[in-house]
Amino acid sequence: MRTVSLPKRCVAALSAHKVTQAQERTVAGNKWRHLPQQPSGLIFTTATGRATAPRGPNRMLTVLCRNAEIRRIRVHDLRHTCASLLLAQGVDARTIMETLGHSTITMTLDTYARVMHTALRAAADAWTTPSGWTRRTATTETR
Question: Looking at residue 63, what DSSP letter applies?
Fold first, then answer.
């Protein structure tokens, strides 16, 4: 088990889900069965407290994407989106590694090297010299 820092919005959504799940537990009564190795219960469960099917979250995400009329993505794609957004915001690779639970910084750097290159280029393009001139990349200068 590991601790993960979450944005306040995610914490609020999980807190609301916990309230809903407590109501479901009350409705299920004696049918609610948590796993012995999970005495405090799971976050996402069936209506009787059991673990969802492994493909369940992807199925739910497919329905959400269809309803929102956006392209289908998998739950695992959300990890890549998270890493890409963090990189674009200038978060350091070590923090991203810990957020994603990668065992080594090399894994993070190898996986997201292309995204990091794009973020570095954007940072270079945005850099302004003390005299106020905007630095241009080699590709920009050759036009």
Answer: H
**More confident call, 37 vs 23:** 23
pLDDT of residue 135: 55
Q: What is the mean pLDDT of the chain?
A: 82
User: If DSSP states are collapsed to H, E and C, what string results for the chain?
Assistant: CCCCCCCHHHHHHHHHHHHHHHHHHHHHHHHCCCCCCCCCCCCCECCCCCECCCCHHHHHHHHHHHHHCCCCCCHHHHHHHHHHHHHHCCCCHHHHHHHHCCCCHHHHHHHCHHHHHHHHHHHHHHCECCCCCECCCHHHHCC
Structure tokens at 62: 């497919």
